[in-house]
Design brief:
- Keywords: Transcription, Transcription regulation.
- This is AraC family transcriptional regulator.
- This protein is of the alpha+beta class.
- The protein has helices at residues 8-19, 111-118, 139-150, 158-174, 179-186, 191-204, 212-218, 223-234, 238-256, 261-267, 273-284, 288-299; strands at 24-27, 33-38, 45-49, 52-58, 60-65, 68-73, 76-80, 84-92, 99-105, 132-136.
- The protein folds into 3 domains: 8-185, Jelly Rolls, CATH 2.60.120; 188-236, Arc Repressor Mutant, subunit A (Orthogonal Bundle), CATH 1.10.10; 240-299, Arc Repressor Mutant, subunit A.
- A hairpin with a 2-residue loop joins strand 5 and strand 6.
Length: 313
């Protein structure tokens, strides 16, 4: 009697379903790896995506970046090459077939050494590539991701095999169709690398008034070049990016530290309460008090006490 061999995707579904027995976003024993399970769709939630590889093995998700919407589902992967504030929403899930995914953070500091080994195998376009993209997963990348997941059930292998699997994942991404994004971000003094420096500065100083000419000077760019390449990579202007950071942090302060809307808005840099409430409503669909009340009600009864602030995946 012959047995049917599992496909890589089915094995990934089984591993994630076994380990993530309940809904939520779960850190794992493998450094940098998280797994995600959701049995129903929900309203969009703010999220801060870091450089990462995210693979959906069942279900689908919608990610809003600036004024763009990316939709990806089973056997797709999302590659993020720079820190990006987004809205994310599980768009296909049910108790019978829950949304299941994995996310693995990319250590961009390991990319230059790997580039020295593999050389220049792709022509680098002159335009700055978007810092987030969706693509169908190739068999070689899927195989490496499956071996990464298998480490969850073989923890004694993590120390020896994780560095090898991580290097292979980076290699597959770098020589794949969207490897230019990672190459550009890791090339010192390239325009995408300069935008990465601008993003890092904005994340640290989001509550301070933003002067574009000062930011351009900090990263050795002209104002026009900063605007052009920042928008190309993040789908936002620097001011829009700062606003996203402020609103996400204000929401976190109200949810996790129970600040009221006035204090939260002031703490993230808003001088006008009416402006904060107006921009918050545009971002999240409701005024601050109503939105936070809805979220808190939805959390009643959850054993984990998790917030709606989702990690990437």
């Amino acid at each position: 009697m012959t047995t049917t061999r599992q496909t890589p995707r089915q094995e990934m579904i089984d591993i994630i379903a076994r380990i993530a027995e309940r809904d939520g976003d779960h850190a794992t024993v493998v450094p940098g790896l998280s797994i995600h399970r959701h049995s129903s769709t929900a309203k969009p939630n703010c999220a801060a995506y870091k450089p990462s590889l995210a693979i959906i093995v069942q279900g689908a998700k919608r990610v809003v970046l600036g004024d763009e919407t990316l939709v990806y589902g089973a056997s797709d992967y999302l590659l993020t090459s720079i820190d990006l504030p987004v809205l994310s929403q599980v768009s296909q899930a049910s108790p019978e077939e829950p949304y299941l995914s994995l996310a693995f953070q990319i250590d961009t500091g390991k990319i230059p050494a790997l580039l020295d080994l593999i050389g220049d195998r792709r022509v680098k376009p002159s335009a700055s590539a978007r810092g987030m993209t969706v693509s169908k997963i190739a068999p070689d990348l899927e195989d490496a991701a499956l071996r990464l997941l298998r480490l969850l059930e073989r923890p004694d292998d993590i120390a020896a095999l994780l560095p090898l699997i991580e290097q292979e994942l980076l290699y597959r991404l770098l020589v794949g169709p969207h490897g230019t994004r990672l190459r550009q971000m890791s090339t010192a003094e390239s325009q995408p690398h300069q935008i990465g420096r601008a993003v890092a500065w904005l994340k640290e100083h989001y509550a301070h008034p933003l002067r574009i000419d000062d930011l351009a000077s900090r990263v050795s760019m002209s104002v026009s070049s900063l605007h052009h390449h920042f928008k190309s990579i993040t789908a936002m202007s620097p001011l829009q990016y700062q606003k996203q950071l402020r609103l996400q942090e204000a929401r976190r302060l109200m949810l996790e530290e129970r600040l009221d809307a006035g204090d939260a808005g002031h703490q993230v840099g808003y001088e006008s309460q009416s402006q904060f409430s107006r921009e918050y409503s545009r971002q999240f669909g409701e005024p601050p008090a109503r939105d936070i009340g809805r979220v808190r009600r939805s959390l009643v009864g959850l054993l984990s006490g998790e917030t709606e602030m989702l990690s990437e995946g």
